[in-house]
């Protein structure tokens, strides 16, 4: 029976490797693991080698995903997964505060409106980043990057009096735009360096 | 003289490994070849990310091979250097040679 690669290493690869490339990369690692590492290092040594390869590959694969723009989709999901519980917590906190007479004064006017604007911007920002990624309009990253910074600054200024929980929401709104813009700009610079110029 | 495609140090190493492997270059072999010749233990992620970038630049091309039992029934992606890639390696090599001219003469 052929030895199998460690489960944690395989799961890590499944998470970090872009879906389109997973088959070849997992195949390459498994082949080297079975044909070379198990005879040379033994079962436990080969398993450690596999895990080390998976861990060391995390950074290059994340950068690869960022360069391809596919990470914008993942960021959208991650962002919504964080923003939805935060928004629920925020609403619950508002309700609790409204039931305590002495603390009711802490609720600033327009707090609920600011929170809703925050959520709408989170979704709109994600949608914008995703649309650029899917459409492949990389030049727009030049607009997306300052837009992300301006968005974050504007929200922080407007939420000065708001509860602390609004701050991470403001940052979350700008994160996908900034991350996507960074990746797309790097890609654009990379392509520009390939253009042949007469000297 | 026209300025060609700029190559990073690791891109250069990967292209040279592909030239050594001729038409049989896939991720695992490229990794082993680099380790064997340079002594650097590189990760499969670094090799694939570089190969992907080189393919985007048109310096290598890839094709999908047949699956095998050693690979758990998974297919193999083989990489071959293109004419543009070979030219980029040649240009980088001659640029390095010109830059090192007269620097390492034994006295």
Total number of beta strands of chain B: 3
Strand order of the largest sheet of chain B: 1-3-2
Uncertain runs of chain A are: 192-199
**Share of helix among residues of chain B?**
40-55%
Per DSSP E runs of 2 or more residues, the count of β-strands of chain A stands at: 0
Helix content of chain A: over 70%
Based on helices, strands and strand pairing, what is the structural class of chain B?
A: mainly alpha
State which percent range the strand residues of chain B make up.
Answer: 5-15%
Name the beta content range of chain A.
under 5%
- How far apart the termini of chain B lie comes to 33 Å
Q: Describe the largest sheet of chain B.
A: 3 strands, antiparallel
Pair with the biggest interface: A-B, 35 and 32 residues
Run of helices and strands of chain B = HEHHEEH
Q: What is the approximate shape of chain A?
A: elongated
Radius of gyration of chain A: 23 Å
Mean pLDDT of chain A: 68
Q: Structural class, from helix and strand content of chain A?
A: mainly alpha
CA gyration radius of chain B, whole angstroms: 16 Å
| Poorly predicted runs of 5 or more residues of chain B | none
Distance between the termini of chain A: 61 Å
The average pLDDT value of chain B, as a whole number, equals 87
